[in-house]
Amino acid sequence: MVNVGDRAPDFSLDSDSGKKVGLADFPGKTVVLYFYPKDDTPGCTREAQAFSAGLDAFAEAGAVVLGVSRDSVDRHRKFRDKYDLEVTLLSDPDLVAHNAYGAYGEKTMYGKKVTGTIRSTFIIGPDRKVKHAFSGVKVDGHADAVLALVRGGDAPGAPPAPARREAAKSAAAKSAKAPAKKAAAKAPAKPAAKPR
Fold this sequence. Notes:
Elements: E1 13-15, E2 20-21, E3 30-35, H1 42-53, H2 55-60, E4 63-69, H3 73-83, E5 88-91, H4 96-101, E6 104-109, E7 112-117, E8 120-124, E9 130-135, H5 142-152, H6 161-186
Parallel strand pairs: 3-4, 4-5
Antiparallel strand pairs: 1-2, 1-5, 3-8, 6-7, 8-9
C-alpha cells in the first residue's frame, strides 16, 4: 500500500464523463482518491452519496474527489444517474491504479479470505505526496472524517484525529492533576489529636 509521505502514483483512467482523468489534471488541488468494490451495492452507494453530498465543501477546501472501481464506464454512468451522484467515477478494469496504490489483494469477507478491492482512501496534497491513507475503510462517517482532514491541512505523518483527541485528553488530565498535587502540598498539616 502507498504510505503517508510517498509520492502518489499517477494514472490515466476513463471517467463517467467519457474523458481520461489523472492526477495531472488537478494542479494545485488536493485530490481525495477512494477505491471501492462495486457500483450499486449498499456500502459503495452510501459512500458515493456521502462524498457527493460533501462535494461543495471539498471544493471550498480546494479538493476534488475521485472514486475508482473495476466497473465499466457504462456501469458507472448507470450508477451515477440512478442515485444522482456528483462525484467523478473512474473505471480501472485492469487494476492499474488499484495495484499502484495497494488497493487490491487479500481481505476477509464474512469470515472468509477472498481477493478483491480493498476499500481505501488517499488524501493527496497539491505537492502530489500522500497526506493520509486509509485501508479497510468503514463507510459510515468516513466522508466527513476525510473532509475534516482536508480542511485541517494536517502534515504528513500526523496521527488520525481520534489519536490526537486521546493525546489531548491525556495531557489535559495530567495538567489538571498537577495543580491539585501542589495545592495538597501547600495545605497545612492537620494538628495531631490531643490525648484525653
